[in-house]
Amino acid sequence: MANATVKSVDRSRASRPPRGIRDDEPFLTKEELAGMVLAYQPDADRARLHKAYEFAREKHGEQLRQSGDPYYSHPVRVATLLASVRLDEATIMAGLLHDTVEDCDDVDLAQIEDLFGTDVAELVDGVTKLGQLEYQSEASKQAENFQKFILATVNDIRVLLVKLADRTHNMRTLHHKKKEESRRRVARETMDLYAPLARRVGLHYLASEMEDLAFQHLNPEARAQILHQLETLESRNKDDLERIRLAIRQVMEREGIECRIKGRRKEPYSIWRKLEKKSISFEGVADIFGFRVIVDTVENCYRSLGVFHTEWACLPDRFRDFISVPKPNGYASLHTTVRASGNRLVELQIRTEDMDDTAERGVAAHWTYKNSAYGFDMESSKAAGLDPTANLKAFGELLSHGGDANDFLEHAKMEMYRTHVFAFTPNGRLVLLPAGSMPLDFAYAVHTAVGDTCDGAKINGVPRNMRVALENGDVVEIIRRKDPRPLPGYETLCVTGRARAAQRKLRREFETQQFASLGRNLLERALRQHQIDPVSVDMRKISERAGFDGVQAMFEALGRTQEEVSRVIGVAFPGLDLDAANPDDTVTLDDEHAPSLIAGENLTPGVTLHLGECCHPIPGDRIIGVREPQKGLVVHTIYCGQVAKYDDRPDLWVDLQWTELAKSGVRAIGRISVNAADHKGVLAQQCTVVAQAGGNIRGVSTHNRDPGFMELVFDIEVEDLRHLEQIKAALRALAVVERVERLEESEFE
Ligand code: MN
Fold it and tell me: Could you tell me the distance, in angstroms and rounded to a whole number, from the CA of residue 94 to the centre of ligand 1?
């Protein structure tokens, strides 16, 4: 590979990748694979590589992949992928042998060590352990497993690299798996765990490929849609893009800077992520198309940047200097977005060959063959514009001391663990969640049905509060109820969008169901008042006659008081004398009746009176009027919060009293709030009590303020304040009711 002394631009690099990488090409023979390794590591042992290849072929024997290929083609392709990032001989051999201990009955680790040495055996062991982690089923092993996962990848970063190559190839052949569910599970795990890990160690092309393949399985429609749009956009802008490429070339030639230009197109999945994150349109994704300009030196990176900024207008807030401050995984480049010809936004990434190599191979780029030893190359790191003592200090020190525990990966992982948390299901499935996630998020990450029925959680075997944030390695057991049910106060019990959306949906369905049960209750009560047994009537027929699309729709409309019970009964039983059983002796206290009910010394005759929507004054309440501009006189109870707003405007106040007429038999609406335990049937129970006490429910709404409790707000037609007090007392007598209050302020507006 290039080092600090190479100053020219290596045009041969443009012809990558090597053969045998793509799945539609035949996999490599042992000679081809060994040749590929020897090309970058001249002292590699050809015979040992051949031996590992033959061992894998022999031990996997007649086994076939689901694709129909011989099984050993899989380790060969994994090894080829590893060779394509020029990893050392031991890693290539581990790639060839990675499935033998797990899958072949007559192979154990001791044998691998005997035949291929400790280094290779340790790598194979590490990869095997990572594999077991996926299928582990013993609950008690989980915390231990998690540690293994960390340790196996931290002790030797090559274990992770083999695992990532393994997973990449498994993703390429995932479509051969028969069960959709297991395809989705593998794809999800890849998206959540392996692709981010690949990014963290800078293996972007593996990460992108894994993401794209996982995206294909998880959301094929979205991917197809984006690809289609990309192609349309690309063909529409083809000429523009060609012009820009030409312009870059001309400008660089004029300045005498040698360069190589690569066009790049954003991956469908990263476009999708952008579309998801920000509410922008497809065309609004500015960096869909861009160019990489590869030059010989760091100085020329900055020179080119200056040239481009002189030539075209740049977007200052999109400029990034990853050369002076590289990313933790070693990525270095200058990024800038310019407004090129045709007013088109184009992202330019300017870098040296070495930076480009690092960008493609990530952490693997810093392993290089040198002085008969394969190890981390400080020179190449410096040439790439990185100062190991500053930005990659841990990495450099560690590897110059012989490649012990990989602090670099540790660093990358630390960063990852700040934003993510790993937890396990009782049967060993690893679940990756955003940091701060709670048991409900976990439940939804496992399965929507688990989230919908979530009723509690045990963490590491101990029942815990639902509001606890999960920690790395927690084993989470979700306690489920039989039927789906939203969790009260779920807004404070989850952080992931998935859990939120699902609970919101559940809440809506649940409310609908509650209104329907209230509606049924109201209708049945009314029927009984007419001496009709609700059991004997055909509700379906009634709903048809009343013009509803089904019984549930009718109940819901009644419960929501969008429909009058008396109208439904009138339509259903045309001969029935509605007045006889339910004489309409109630006069609702509304604005129309107000003038005859309210008196006041300073009341101007003819003034418009309004009853406060906020406090619903009823006869018996102490009341006051407030003159409001353009509204007339609004009547409030003296305790109403709205009145407090006029404390400093006594000139607007009018003293009022109820008339004698108001105190005799006029019905008014009182609004009360009931806090009750969130049990099934609570609403129906309360409706019955209100009805028995002679109250007429005109409306109800439910709210969830605290977990385990439900707040119901009733609008009840009552005779007077005393009547309302009686109803409140009757409600308080119910075991499930915690608190009953009259609402006198406009809490629900
Ligand atoms: Mn494998």
Answer: 11
pLDDT-based confidence at residue 215 (cuts at 50, 70, 90):
very high
The pLDDT of residue 15 is above 50: no
Q: What's the gap in Å between 508 CA and the centre of ligand 1?
A: 45
CATH (residue range 668-747) = 3.30.70.260
At 355-389, the pLDDT tens digits run 888 787 766 665 544 433 333 333 443 333 332 22
Residue linked to tokens 């900055």 = 302
Domain residue ranges of the chain, discontinuous segments joined by +: 30-215, 225-365, 585-659, 668-747
By the CB criterion, residues less than 5 angstroms from ion ligand 1 are 99, 166
For the domain made up of 225-365, give the CATH fold.
Beta Polymerase; domain 2 (3.30.460)
Look up the CATH superfamily of 30-215.
Answer: Hypothetical protein af1432 (1.10.3210.10)
Q: H-helix or E-strand containing 337?
A: strand 334-340
58 C-alpha to ligand 1 centroid (Å):
16
User: From ligand 1's centre to the CA of 733, what distance in Å?
Assistant: 66
Report the alpha-carbon distance of residue 503 to residue 484 in Å, rounded: 10
β strands within 481-631, DSSP E: 598-599, 609-611, 623-628
pTM: 0.50
Who wins on pLDDT, 136 or 724?
A: 724
**Integer Cα distance of 243 and 264 in angstroms:** 15
Please identify every residue annotated as catalytic.
102-103
Give the residue from 47, 48, 103 showing the smallest Cα distance to 75.
Answer: 103
Which is it for strands 598-599 and 657-658: parallel, antiparallel or unpaired? Answer: antiparallel
Query: How many angstroms separate the alpha carbon of residue 16 from the centre of ligand 1?
Result: 25
Note the pLDDT tens digit of each residue in 240-297.
888 889 999 999 999 999 999 988 888 888 888 777 766 566 666 656 778 999 999 9
